[in-house]
Design goal:
The chain is of the alpha/beta class. It contains seven helices and eleven strands. The strands form two sheets. A seven-stranded mixed sheet has the order 3-2-1-4-5-11-10. Strands 6-7-8-9 form a four-stranded antiparallel sheet. Bound molecules: S-adenosylmethionine (SAM). S-adenosylmethionine binds next to helix 1. The site of S-adenosylmethionine (SAM) has 19 residues, from helix 1.
Amino acid sequence: MYMTNFDSTDFIWDTCIEFLYNKELYAESLSQLLKEHNAKKILDCSCGTGFPAIQLKKKGFDLTCSDLSERMLKRFKNNMQRESLSIPFHKLSWTELNSFFNTKFDAVLCRGCSLPYCVSWEKDSVDLDKARKEIFASLQNMHDILEENGLLYLDLSPRESHSPLNTTFIHNFGSKKIDNQTVSVNWKIHHFLEESKRIWNANVLVKESKKTFSMSFEAYYLRHSELLSMLKKIGFKKIFPYFEVEGENTYDVFLAVK
Ligand SMILES: C[S@@+](CC[C@H](N)C(=O)[O-])C[C@H]1O[C@@H](n2cnc3c(N)ncnc32)[C@H](O)[C@@H]1O
């Protein structure tokens, strides 16, 4: 069993982002994609600590953010203030989106492999049956708050990790200097295919203070085929699986047009 320090999940994810992305490169290609779909009014409904909402806001998009985690939103607020930006944000679960907003969006983002954690972010166990139902209800909400022809942007762990032959993944991302500290990151991911369960363990080591921050969340193992069949059932007109986005080297991207 992995140890989780629930007080530092926002710090851990914010640090992971620094290793996973060239933020500017990714935000630029996402911005191009949104422009191609004439999307100006964007909801990032799993905004986390603010990537890529902050970068998109700087590029002039009309951004609204939401997330269920108070801890993530607190860091998002700090990150926003550091950039002297103001983006409206709300503490909301995906299943509350449609009843909360009385406006529609040109695009909804739910990225960072967020969906599988719909009932278990910052929790070390998952109710799989509840999670599956909630994922469907969440996707339905994301569909309903889109304008006609609006774009849903989702991502999940990559194709290679959905093979029955591969069930354990170790990622060592190396180390780099962040805010004058030498930080290294590693992940261990386990897929339990028969149970439809996934465990993600992330560790951040800070060299100078010799501190390790760890978190381990269980999640629903959402297969790509299951996501696609949910999107079809909900009534998205066009679905683009495995859409290539420059700068996205971690997750597989799925686009769906209402
Ligand atoms: C891995 S982080 C991704 C954050 C951000 N999208 C990014 O790419 O950096 C997953 C986020 O999904 C949020 N989340 C998980 N379940 C949620 C739910 N049911 N409703 C709203 N947000 C949720 C978490 O609070 C967390 O901030």
